Amino acid sequence: MSKEDLDKRPNIPELLGKHGFFFEDACIESIKRNGKWLIETVRYPVEYQTGINTEIDIIAERAGQSVIFECKREDRETKNWIFIRSKDISLDKLVIRTYMGNLMGHDGKLKQWPNWQKSKWKITLNIDIFDSAFCIMPKKKGGNLQANPNPITDTCHQLIMGCCGLISERLSQMRKYMYGTIDTCYIPIIITTAKLSSFSYNVDNITLADGKLSEDGQLKQEKWLIYRWYSTLGILGDVLSSNFAGNSPKVIKDYHKVWDIIVVNSEHLLEFLENFCFELPLIQ
Fold first, then answer.
1. How far apart are CA 12 and CA 48, in angstroms?
2. CA angle 235–237–243, rounded 5-degree value
3. Which tens digit of pLDDT belongs to each residue from 230-266?
4. Where are the domains of the chain?
C-alpha cells in the first residue's frame, strides 16, 4: 500500500471517538470496577412515544434504586458548562427530588403518590444545586466565544427522554405482572468531559437600564453538581391516566416537569462513584 493510500485511510479511532463511543465504554468500565454499582444494562433502547425511540447509555443499580447515566463527550479545551443558581432556589444541599415512589393495589392502579416533601432523598456528598446553565463555546464562524444553552439542554433532553421511556415501560410491566408495595427511585446522571463551573454574582450589581452586570462575578470550578432542569418532557398522557388514578393534577404535573439531574465531570468520576450514597426516607 502506497503512502498516499495510507494517508487516505480513515482514522477509525478518531472518528468513533468524536461520537463518544470510547468515552461511553470507559464510563461503563469505571462503574463496573467500583464494585458498589451494579450494571443492569447498557445502550438500552426505549420508546418515548410511538415512533420516537431513544437509547439509554447505562442503567445501573445502587442501593436497590435505578440510576440512569448519559455519557456526553465534549471538547474539554473549548467547552465549559457554566451553572447559575436563582436566588429563590432551595439551598438545601442534602436533599433533592426523587422520581417514582408508589403503592400499587391488587387492581394494578397506583393508590398513593407521595408528594415531593415526602419523597426526598439524601446525598452524602457536598453538592450544590443550580437551575440555569450555559455552555461557553466558540461560535461556528469566527473565534469569538458565545454562551449557548443548547449543548446542555440537548444532553438533558436525551437523558430525560430515556428516563421517561423507561419509567413508562416499567409502569406498564408492573401493572401487568406485579402487585403489592413497590418503591423505586430513578436518578438521572450526566457524565461529561466538559469543564464544570458555577458562576455567582450580586443581583444588586445588575443595571436595569441595559441588563448588564457591573462586576465580574465569581467563577468556581466544580467536580459535580445538581442541575434542576425544567422540562416539557414527561410521562405520556395515556400512561398518566391509566396509572395515576386518584392523584391530583398538580402532583402529576410536578412529577414530570421538574428533574434534578446530577452532572459529574469525568475527571472526578471515580471519586464520585466511590463516595456517592443516598438514603430514601420511608414513604408515609
1. 32
2. 75
3. 877 665 545 554 544 444 444 444 455 678 889 999 9
4. 43-86+100-200+216-254
